[in-house]
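Case 274 in the screening queue. Each case pairs one protein sequence with one candidate compound; here the compound is zinc ion. For every case the pipeline is the same: read the inputs, emit a complex structure as tokens, and attach any notable structural observations.

Predict complex for case 274.
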Amino acid sequence: MKKSAGFWKRKINVLAAVLLGLSVISCSTVAFTGRNRLLLYSDTDIFSLSDQSYSQLMAASVRSSDTKCTVTVTEVGRRMTSALQAYLTATGQSDVLNGITWSFDLVKNSQANAFCLPNGRVVFYEGIMPVLDTPDLVAVVMGHEMGHVIARHGNERMSRQALVSLVGAVAGQAVGQKTSQNVQALFEAAFSIGSEYGYLLPYSRKHEYEADEIGLYLMAIAGYDISQATTLWTRMSQATAQSVPEYLSTHPSDANRIRHLEKLQDKARSLIAR
Ligand SMILES: [Zn+2]
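Case 274 output:
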């Protein structure tokens, strides 16, 4: 059935109203991979919500008393973030880190998990440390989590969700409620504290691959053994059904993912020579 001019006019008005309501609309590229992405929110908004989540999370958590593992996580994090800072400064891209405050915590929790909030707060659970028994293996997970942060995957996921909601609202002609969906609601949906996944919902496969790629480059520029990335994911994918680490449930590992990392080894090595 042909839609009337009024229908399309209403649709365009709704679109304009929603876009104007969003704090920032920017097309930009992801550091290291150059992929184009659309971000609808400002770092300021997302980072301040991340700060709140981090405070709540740490208030409800107990830091690990395992000094050796705590030192390893902290040292790997510091080495990788300072190498990243130096690299971005040398290549004129230091604005990628604007507003990010890195921190590295190891908390008491038997789940084999690790995650990072969009503002750079990286949290490892004690339960993942037996799998990460060398600093190089810690660096694989650290680099991957840092990759999600510097690529602004959280913002991109929220932006995408906002657009999906918009399409639903327009299609249903029931706009009032949906357009009031604000940044806080989207943040909570994307980073639902206390969800079955721990603290972050799984990213899309595209984001997982990209975090793997950036993570590998970060390992390279910080001088870690990049061959350990495939070692880790192979080890994870070989875990038996009874003992599948939680990290694997949000980071599905498969042969394609491992092949993807193998293909990137040469490019990662070229960064070491810089
Ligand atoms: Zn991930």
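Case 274 observations:
- The pocket of zinc ion is lined by residues 144, 148, 203, 208, 211, 251 (CB under 6 Å).
- Confidence is low (pLDDT under 50) at residues 171-180, 194-199.
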